[in-house]
Design a protein that fits this description.
Blueprint lengths: L2 E5 L5 E4 L3 E5 L17 E9 L4 E7 L3 E8 L1 E6 L4 E5 L2 E6 L4 E7 L6 E8 L9 E6 L9 E6 L7 E2 L5 E7 L4 E5 L5 E9 L2 E3 L2 E3 L4 E5 L3 E6 L4 E9 L3
Parallel strand pairs: 13-14
Antiparallel strand pairs: 1-20, 2-3, 3-4, 4-11, 5-10, 6-9, 6-11, 7-8, 7-10, 9-12, 13-15, 15-22, 16-21, 17-20, 17-22, 18-19, 18-21
Length: about 240
């Protein structure tokens, strides 16, 4: 029997700093919940909105795999490896902080906010050489199916990280169904609804709800609204 944990959207931590409106699925910064420290190797899942022309000043990271998925607008990234890049909806960005890196993130636009998911994964290797990568995804690749956007394999689809983790995105018409088979039996999956609604096995999920599932090798997914979009993050449960 699969184990599950449900985090409704309204139960997340929340911080509003004026320039930044952030919802935290797991404990982060001023939000601390001892029952929500992480889901396996998934340490941070922040749902951020940054106002026009604002952003995060230069700050350090180390020994963390950091993934950004823009949902609306344009986000400019600069780092200590002399990388300057802009990511927008349809892109995915990954940064291996490894032995240490500094970076900044700013809303490139002066007329509208930028919305993005900031995700941190515990790595399986310490003090690796820092690196940066980004790719542009094709929307057609995830229409009515789950499309792999991240894995541990440099030669596989999507970006790669230093962890036995796989991410998939899917956008579905109403009543479309699919099944997800885990890559590793000891992993779990954290499902996060970007828009619309789904039923995962028997659990109903709405926009920004999250559900962790483990001790199973497969589960079913059904879109219960039109144009429903979901992110699946398969991660090791033991770190």
């Amino acid at each position: 029997m699969a184990n599950t944990i449900l985090h409704k959207a309204e139960s997340r931590g929340h911080a509003h700093h004026g320039w930044l409106n952030s919802y935290h699925t797991f404990s982060f910064a001023g939000y601390y919940n001892p029952e929500r420290m992480h889901f396996g190797a998934l340490r941070v899942l922040n749902d951020d909105t940054v106002e026009a022309g604002m952003g995060f000043g230069t700050h350090p990271h180390s020994n963390m795999e950091i993934i950004s998925i823009p949902l609306e607008g344009d986000l400019e990234h600069r780092d200590s490896m002399n990388t300057t890049a802009v990511i927008k909806n349809g892109d995915i960005q990954v940064m291996s902080a490894g032995s240490g890196i500094t970076h900044s993130e700013y809303n490139k636009n002066t007329d509208r906010p930028v919305k993005f998911l900031q995700i941190w994964i515990f790595p399986n290797k310490q003090n690796v050489e820092p690196r940066y990568d980004q790719i542009t995804l094709k929307a057609t690749d995830r229409q009515n199916k789950l499309h792999q956007i991240l894995s541990p394999d440099k030669a596989d689809n999507g970006v790669w990280i230093h962890q036995e983790a796989w991410f998939h995105l899917g956008k579905f018409d109403k009543d479309q169904t699919t099944a997800y088979t885990l890559k590793k039996e000891t992993n779990g999956v954290y499902a996060f609804v970007l828009s619309g609604s789904f039923t995962l096995n028997e659990t109903e999920l709405n926009k920004r709800d999250g559900l962790g599932i483990w001790n199973t090798n497969q589960f079913s997914l059904k879109a219960t609204s039109e144009g429903a979009e979901i992110l699946l993050m398969e991660v090791p449960m033991v770190i």
